[in-house]
Amino acid sequence: MKHQDVELLAIGVGPSNLALAIALEELAPDDLARNSMLIDRADTVVWQQGLLLPWATSQISFLKDLVTLRNPSSEFSFVNFLHASGRLDHFINMGNLWPYRSEISDYFAWVANSLSKVKVELGRECVAVGPRRDAAGKLVGWSARFADGSTVSSRYLVIAPGRDPHIPEVLAGLSADRVIHGTRYTPRLATLPRDLPYRVAVIGGGQSAAEMFCALQDDLPEADIAWVMRSLGPNALQSSKFTNEMYYPSFVDKVYGASPAGREEIRREMHRTNYSGVEPDLLQNLYSDRYVKGLAGQDRTSLVTMVDLVGAEETEDGVVLQLADRATGEITRLERDLVFLGTGFRGEMPALVRGLADELKLSEITVTRRYQLVLDEPSDAACYLQGLNEDTHGVGDSLLSVVVDRTAATVQDIVSRRHHAGRTEFADAGA
C-alpha cells in the first residue's frame, strides 16, 4: 500500500487550507512549502457545492479573499483571479462588493491550480488520524489513514474538514432520497423531474432554508412548498457597520482573552449576526415574490411558524412530519414527498478530530491562540484545528472574515517551532 512522508499535511481543500497554502508559499521557507500537502476526498475544488445557486452571493466583501488582508499585492488575490479570467472590467462595472457564490468557488479552484510549491491531491478520503511515536513512546508526528488503505506521515498536521451536517434526531435514519440536507440540495434536485406536483417541506429559519425555499419555486415550479420554522416568522440577520466590526481579525483577541463565561456572553450577543436569520435583501425579495404570485393566484407556498418538529415517519408515499404548536401544544401532521433541511451543522467537533483526541487521551479539545491543539505531553510535533474553534475564538472562526489572519498565525507558529527546534533537516528554518 502507498505510503508518503511529508512535513506538513493539511486535511481539507476548502478556504481555510487554501489560505494556509498561500501563506506557506509566501511566508514559509521553501523547504517547508515544498514538503507540504493538501488533501481532500472530493474530486474537484468546489465551495458550498450543495447550495451553489446561480443567484446566491457570498455575503462578504471580495477584499476578504484568501490573502488580501495580509498581502494586498499577492498574486493569489481575488482581483488577480478576475484579471486572469478576463472578467475584471465586468466585475468593476457591477459595482458590488459581494461576488456571486459561484464566482468565489471558481476563485478557490483557481488558487488550488495556481499553487507552485504546495501539493494538492484530490479524491483521497481521510478516515482516521493518529499519533506517531518513537521507540521511547515520545510523540514525534502524525499518521493519516485513507479509504484506499494508503497512509501519510507528517510532523505537522492541520485539520480543516468543516463541521458535520446537523440532521434532527427525529429524521435520522430516514431515506436520504426524501430527507435532504442543504449540503446536498443541488445534486438531489438534478435527479428530480421539474414538472411533478411534489409536496415539499423546508425545515429551518436561517439563510440556507430561505435560499432553498426561494430556489425550489423555480426548480420545482409545480410543487406545494411549506417553510417550517420554530420562530414566529423569518427574521433578518442583525447586521450593521458596528456589528460587522466584531468580525475583524483583531476581535479574536478580545474573545480569546475573555473568561469562559465572558466568551459565552459574547457568543450570545453575536448569535443573531450569523445564525437563525436571513439576509434582509433576500427576505424582501421573498416577500415581494409571494405578494406578486398571490395577486395572480399562483402562490403555491405556505409558512408554518411557531412549531417544533417532534416526530417523523416514512411511509410508502413519503414522510409524515409531526409538528407541535409552540403556543398551544397541539400536534398536527404534515405529509410531504420531500423534506429539505436548512438545519445547519453539528456543534461538536468532527469525528476525525474526536478520534484523534481519544487516541491522545485528551480530557478536552482546545487550542492555543494560534490554533494549535493543546496536548498533555511535550512534543516537537503539532496539530492545528482550522474553522472549528468558535468556543475559544468567536463566532467568526468558521467564516472567511478571519481566515487570512488565522492561517497566517498557524504558519508563523509552525515556522517558529521549526526555528527553535534547530534540526538540521530544516535547513531554511530561520528564513
Automatic annotation (TrEMBL):
GO terms for molecular function: oxidoreductase activity. InterPro entries: FAD/NAD-bd_sf (IPR036188), Lys/Orn_oxygenase (IPR025700). It is an enzyme of class 1 (oxidoreductase). It comes from the Bacteria. It holds the Pfam family Lys_Orn_oxgnase. Keywords: FAD, Flavoprotein, Monooxygenase, NADP, Oxidoreductase. Pathway: Siderophore biosynthesis. It catalyses: L-lysine + NADPH + O2 = N(6)-hydroxy-L-lysine + NADP(+) + H2O. Its EC number is 1.14.13.59. Its cofactor is FAD. Belongs to the lysine N(6)-hydroxylase/L-ornithine N(5)-oxygenase family. This is L-lysine N6-monooxygenase MbtG. The lineage of its organism: Bacteria, Bacillati, Actinomycetota, Actinomycetes, Pseudonocardiales.
